[in-house]
Amino acid sequence: MISSSPAQTFRVAALYRFASLPEHEALRTELATFCCKRGIRGTLLLAAEGINGTVAGTPEAIEALIEHLEKMPALKGLEVKYSTASEMPFHRMKVRLKKEIVTMGVPEVDPVNQAGTYVEPAEWNTLISDPETVVVDTRNAYETAIGTFSRAMDPETETFRDFPAWAERNLNRLKGRKIAMFCTGGIRCEKATAYMKLIGVDDVYHLKGGILKYLEEVPAEESLWEGECFVFDERVSVRHGLEKGEATLCRACRHPLTPQDRASPLFQEGIACPHCAESRSEADRARYAERQRQIELAEKRGDRFPIGTPVGKQDA
Hints:
This protein is an alpha/beta fold. Helix content is 31%, strand content 21%. Strands 4-1-3-2-5 form a five-stranded mixed β-sheet. It has a four-stranded parallel β-sheet with strand order 6-10-9-7. A two-stranded antiparallel ribbon has the order 8-11.
């Protein structure tokens, strides 16, 4: 178990870069060893199109990792968003090889050379306040459920693989318009803009650094963000200043829960929530109830991660 003392916090780094990385397979063992030696935990994904991941460790360890990655010519200019956590938010360190660092399933998409135009957080409000701009949230439905930008279109996708079909269905509404796209850390919307250009939508923009960078840099009193931002670790959500949010996770269906969700009569800790209560069988409920009992017993013993399952639903 890794926990912090009153004087210590963990630094969380959400990072990615689209780049030509043909040698990615050879990096797997090197990066896993580098991180494990320094107590870093989280997940890094490697593919021929670049690197993506979120990791946490001491500030010194995370600084060393970012410096190590930046020394690789292909990864110079890495997009990184930092936040903090009072306890280690990951179970273990994983370095995985993938066909894509964020899975869309369209091989022709080239985010290295064809992505849309970056928009800095300070300029984002002006862009999305223009009534002629179509604002598109490229995240999945369980993420948008707890927060998004005002006026944003929600594709209501289950995974990022569903996005191309949604874009094709809505092509007549999007073509010839100014399109502003956003996501959690910038990676999905960057790839989505490349796909939009592939299908003939050319005037596309994406929020540099994603929602996380916006929440870090834009003052709350000037913000057009509504709600909280889902993150793929034990914090579940963050809000302005990247402070931990109020959302928790339903351990039955993995859907993020607002305080209103938890106040619902359909909510039972670890067993059901308003999003899944009517779709679970009695056998499911019995299984979840036993798991919850084991979690509570483990927590009484002081176990930090009593159940070895990752938080959230990650596109794979």
